[in-house]
Amino acid sequence: MPIMLNRHSSVPLYRQLVNALREDIVSGALAANYKLPPERELAERLGVNRATVLQAYQQLKSEGLIASHVGRGTFVCASDDRQGGAPPWQILFSDYSNRFTYHDIAAADQAQRAPNAIDFATGSQNPADIPDDLLRDVSIRAFESADFHGTQESPIEGFPQLRELLADHMTRRGVRCDADNVMVLSGAEQGLDLCVRAFVNPGDCVLVEQSTFFPALQAFRSADARVIGVPIDEHGMRTDLLDGYCKRFHPKLIFTIPTFQNPSGATMPLHRRRELVETAMRYQCLVIEDDPYGELCYGERLAEGPTDALASGKPRRPRELTPLKGMENAGYVIYLSTFSKTVTPGLRTGWLVADSHVIARIAALRRMIDQHTSSSSQLICMELLSSGRIGRHIGRLCEIYGHRRDLMLDALHRYAPEGMRWNTPLGGYYLWARLPDGLRAARLLDDARHAGVTFMPGDMFAVDEDDSSHIRLNFVRPDSRQIEPGIRLLCDTIAETEQSADGHGGER
Ligand SMILES: Cc1ncc(COP(=O)(O)O)c(C=O)c1O
């Protein structure tokens, strides 16, 4: 029974063992009634933990491929034993789907699903901030004034007028491009999926920020990429280390969220942006720049207090940092953004900026999945952009969200227990906090949900699944009145959880 496990693969060892044994059983190489080695013996032979073998055997039992008999051992079942019953899902699902880690989705759902709790967990805006009146108004205008009907089919890359408007919008933001360089998407996440299909082969190395948007991790892992995390600090990816990572791992892609990063809220300063782009070009490595939050910038805390700024009605938005895409014109950076964070995720409209030949390739791949972004959503976005109303709406959001960010910072300063640290995000949705030493985010989450407040544990975003010391707090999700009581509740829970952990022999 020769089994080879690859320790460098992104596929967990237990799953490699399941795959190898399953293949042998199904092909008949391991005949019915063959006695498998005891767990401990196989673990020693393969140089893995006994738990790895145990997990693999349990999986194969659930598939009806093997069975244990007390006192006799574990045996391969005859194929007849496997007929009928429930479908053997693990075999029926593709390797692509099996590589997906569903527990992340379940954990995210669990963090978000706490009725009546103050919600710092969910990664979207407060439904009350969706600009209903604006959307109603622009929808009516869009459908009235269009030379074509809302139900008309769109070209796969999007309506030419919308591509033009987005190209102008990006040019104003420092990314000079034409309509040919823009593709309208059904959300930025679709763009990510299409880039993975277009560029990533199994085994290709992808560099990401050490903590990153977990659907991106899922997308790369499902494609069987080797995902390596580059350390981050309060200014985002440590680009000073990037040359070493590129030399050692020869990445095909660098995935980055340089502005108001999810989950850390960090923003890369100009010199790091330059260093990232230059390093990528030196190693002929593509960069996917995911930028859903870049326009939501609040700058430093408002000097004279947030309420005054709101009352004055004068938006005082700091200057945006140029996206990476605006720093090169050789085509190494592929840019993604979306209306999900500035208008509503329900529009399902995002966009990609890249060389036109990349767009042609991605459009061909997209034809297999969805023909184009909803024409109605595109019409609405066209009206939002052409009327200039989106700019005013985003200006207003920046005032409101900057105020909520300040409320959260104030509450943390007031209530945070000793040993807790956090950053001051200059925009976006998220604040990243480090828990007092030894406290684990997952353990805290149970207590916090019980107490009536939720957050997203850092483990969700960690490349190596071991960042239990950080939590992500969405400061735009709750309404302003909930922030101070929510943070106080959270901080009290942290103190209580710390104490009870000490009371239980320090087990955390
Ligand atoms: C970094 C990042 N990229 C992409 C998305 C998803 O965008 P969309 O709704 O346009 O697919 C999100 C949403 O949370 C995000 O945080």
Proportion of residues in β-strands: 5-15%
- Secondary structure: helix percent: 40-55%
Summing up helix and strand content along with how strands pair, one would put the structural category as alpha/beta
Give the biggest beta sheet.
Answer: 7 strands, mixed
Q: Ends: how far apart?
A: 41 Å
Task: Report Rg.
Answer: 25 Å
Report on the architecture of this protein:
Keywords: Aminotransferase, DNA-binding, Pyridoxal phosphate, Transcription, Transcription regulation, Transferase. Its EC number is 2.6.1.39. This is Aminotransferase. The protein has helices at 13-27, 39-46, 50-62, 89-92, 95-99, 102-112, 132-145, 160-172, 188-199, 214-222, 242-249, 270-282, 306-312, 356-366, 375-386, 389-415, 441-451, 480-503, and strands at 35-36, 66-69, 73-76, 118-119, 182-185, 205-209, 226-230, 232-233, 236-237, 253-256, 286-290, 333-338, 350-353, 421-422, 430-434, 453-454, 456-457, 470-474. It is α/β, with parallel strands linked by helices. The protein folds into three domains: 13-92, Orthogonal Bundle (Arc Repressor Mutant, subunit A), CATH 1.10.10; 102-122 and 393-503, Aspartate Aminotransferase, domain 1; 159-295 and 318-387, Aspartate Aminotransferase, domain 2. A seven-stranded mixed beta sheet has the order 5-13-12-11-10-6-7, sandwiched between helices. Strand 6 (205-209), helix 10 and strand 7 form a beta-alpha-beta unit. Helix 8 (160-172) crosses helix 15 (375-386), helix 13 (306-312) packs antiparallel against helix 16 and helix 17 (441-451) crosses helix 18. Bound molecules: pyridoxal-5'-phosphate. Residues 123, 187-189, 213, 257, 262, 290, 292, 338, 340, 345, 350 line the site of pyridoxal-5'-phosphate.
